[in-house]
Design goal:
The chain is of the alpha+beta class and 656 residues long. Helix content is 60%, strand content 10%. A six-stranded mixed β-barrel has the order 2-3-8-5-7-6.
Length: 656
């Protein structure tokens, strides 16, 4: 059979099996749109400067949004195309029976995948240009992006998104096409959909590889070996939540790739009561899930991603928030913290009123930049860069109890600065070194290191007296908080309720102002939201594809005495079983990633004092599982109900 003779077969296949190809088309279109939109945002933000040192970097936020979106979409696209090819086992056997060679079958499958993916990539690129401005407006409305932030059109992100997604789609189809080419012609005579070997050598290699990367990177960030601590992006504990997210993704990838190995025992465990129950619906659903492992894996994967990513990201965000709170309270000597009830900084005149209170000491903090901080005997010029700094106006030693490796915070006055021990070690700084830097407005300064301390997450790694930057900050860079010291037993200061201030006792302080907490949650939603929305759509897509490929199964049940209600019940039980299996896998990966997060926190943040307990975000996990189950039931029962309107003999004649 020549290649030219296969072209009409390919066209006929695309027309006949439009539902399966439509699912692949939708998955790829939305995947390209998602990567294109986030890519356009990243390219637009490349030249933007972050003017607020206390706020998360817009470029970093958008980069991780693009990375998470790309990870989910690529995984779903590869799985969807492989599933679409695997569902054509009987059709492939028929081609082999009429003389098609394995090579011709592979070319046919790849040709179909390439045609669908090219058309979908064009539609996805166009959709991405429309979605990107919506993302930008959402970020502006949540104050995660500056006013006037607009998306500049560039063809590069569109080409990158289309090229990567098409390559992944073809690669996923190729892996399935190799298996399809080995189908024996005699299988055209059978209707069984029993999967054989699902954990292929390639899947084993990738799964073990991701697991090894997860363990290696986790160990590196926990120990920070020499050389790695030279990079401020890797060393700074403030960046640890972001790197933890990347580590968690490695674990999610490993579990998803091991799914064919994990799902059968999970299905058996979850369906232990089924043989004891009356009726055949549960038993049929159980055996279908066990026999068609590849289909079960493909339908469970998007749901696993939704639940697993939700549990991992929400759990890590909450855990790092708890660590920040515990660490900040432990480091604070002040009795009360005064913060603005609204807005990022204290209103003008507030500090003067606080300092007029009898028997109360007041220390305020501001955030600023130090550009090109360099110097010291062991300093490497390559390490010079821009660092966030906390300007302290008051008695730092009386406000915080920061363990000192060398020097003392009592000397933080005049042209001086204190740095964290990790920052000093990475740059070869010691007490007494004179460091050159440039202030935020371009003014050069030489500062002397007077202390090496352990700084909490509520402070920057560099502390300096406010007098160093006084007169060199913009008008909107006011104090973000005031810390009040008072004798033991002193009552909270009485402040005018109309002053717009919030007074919190030190032992109840959260370690960050409301603006920082709000920014953390907005960042989490921005990173996770688009990927989860895509995965939710993928749940509907794969469940509809799976149901559309099972018309012959429905017909067989009806011809052997089953009624429509029993068929629908079987479909519903299978959807429930898929959701339970995905939830079990998600609980497994969330528990593992939470344990890894606690390990990093114990080694890098809470190095002394009580450790945080292992807690899972049950409400977030439950909400994600409920949403996935609801979508799975609707996406499987609705097309099944529509299919059952046809006569059983007509369904039996439908080709898989």
């Amino acid at each position: 059979m020549g290649i030219t003779l296969l072209l009409p077969v390919a066209v006929a296949t695309l027309r006949k099996r439009w539902l399966g190809f439509a699912g692949s088309f939708v998955a790829l279109t939305l995947g390209v749109a998602l990567i294109s939109a986030t890519g356009l945002l990243v390219s637009t933000s490349a030249g933007l400067e972050n003017n607020d040192p206390s706020a998360p970097s817009l470029k970093k936020l958008l980069t991780f949004m693009a990375g998470m979106s790309g990870f989910v979409s690529l995984f779903v696209v590869a799985s969807t195309f492989a599933f679409a090819v695997a569902g054509r086992r009987r059709e492939t056997a028929l081609l082999r029976a009429v003389g098609a060679t394995p090579r011709q079958v592979r070319l046919l499958v790849l040709g179909e995948a390439l045609a669908v993916s090219l058309a979908a990539s064009v539609c996805g690129a166009l959709l991405g240009t429309a979605v990107a401005p919506l993302f930008a407006r959402w970020l502006i409305a949540r104050e995660a992006a500056p006013e006037g932030f607009t998306v500049d059109f560039s063809v590069t992100p569109l080409l990158v998104a289309a090229t990567v997604e098409v390559a992944v789609a073809v690669a996923g189809a190729y892996a399935a096409a190799r298996r399809a080419g080995r189908v024996r012609p005699v299988e055209a005579l059978g209707d069984a959909a029993v999967d054989g070997k699902v954990m292929t050598l390639g899947r084993w290699v990738w799964a073990v590889g991701y697991l090894a990367v997860f363990g290696t990177v986790l160990a590196l960030f926990a120990t920070m070996p020499p050389g790695m601590d030279q990079d401020p992006q890797l060393r700074d504990p403030q960046n640890l939540p972001v790197w933890t997210l990347l580590i968690d993704v490695m674990a999610i990838m490993a579990v998803a790739l091991f799914a064919p190995l994990l799902i059968p025992p999970l299905v058996r465990l979850l369906t232990l009561p089924v043989p004891l129950a009356s009726g055949a619906v549960g038993l049929l659903a159980r055996q279908n899930a066990l026999a068609a492992v590849r289909r079960t894996v493909s339908t469970a994967t998007p749901m696993f991603l939704v639940i697993g990513l939700t549990g991992t990201v929400v759990g890590s965000t909450l855990t790092f928030g708890d660590a920040r709170t515990l660490q900040s309270r432990d480091a604070l000597s002040a009795r009360y913290v005064v913060e603005p009830a609204k807005g990022p900084v204290l209103a003008p005149g507030t500090v003067e009123k606080l300092r007029a209170l009898p028997g109360v000491g007041t220390t305020t903090i501001r955030t600023t930049w130090l550009n090109g901080l360099s110097g010291g005997a062991g300093f490497s010029p390559a390490a010079a860069g821009t660092l966030s700094a906390t300007a302290v106006d008051g008695n730092a030693a009386a406000t915080w109890k920061l363990p000192a490796e060398a020097g003392s915070l009592d000397d933080l006055k005049g042209s001086s600065l204190a740095v964290s021990g990790e920052l000093a070690k990475a740059n070869g700084w010691q007490v007494g070194d004179k460091l050159d830097t440039t202030l935020d407005d371009g003014t050069p300064r030489t500062l002397t290191v007077v202390a090496l301390v352990k700084t909490p997450l509520s402070l920057a790694e560099v502390l300096l007296p406010y007098s160093v930057v006084a007169g060199h900050l913009s008008a909107d860079r006011g104090p973000t908080a005031a810390f009040l010291t008072a004798p033991d037993g002193a009552a909270a200061p009485a402040l005018d309720p109309a002053a717009g201030l919030k007074v919190t006792a030190a032992d109840a302080w959260g370690g960050a102002d409301d603006a920082r907490s709000h920014a953390d949650w907005i960042a989490m939603i921005a990173i996770l939201g688009p990927a989860l929305l895509y995965a939710l759509i993928a749940i509907v897509n794969t469940m509809m594809m799976s149901t559309g490929d099972r018309l012959r199964d429905f017909a067989t049940l009806r011809l052997t005495g089953g009624n429509d209600r029993q068929v629908l019940a079987m479909v519903g039980v299978e959807a429930l079983l898929t959701a339970l299996t995905a939830t079990a896998l998600a609980l497994l990966v969330t528990t593992g990633t939470q344990a890894a997060t606690l390990m990093l926190i114990g080694n890098r943040i809470l190095t002394a004092g009580p450790a945080l307990p292992l807690r899972l975000p049950w409400s977030a996990l439950g909400g994600a599982a409920a949403a996935g189950l609801a979508l799975a039931l609707v996406a499987s029962l609705l097309p099944a109900r529509l299919a059952l309107r046809a006569r059983a003999l007509d369904l039996a004649a439908a080709r898989q």
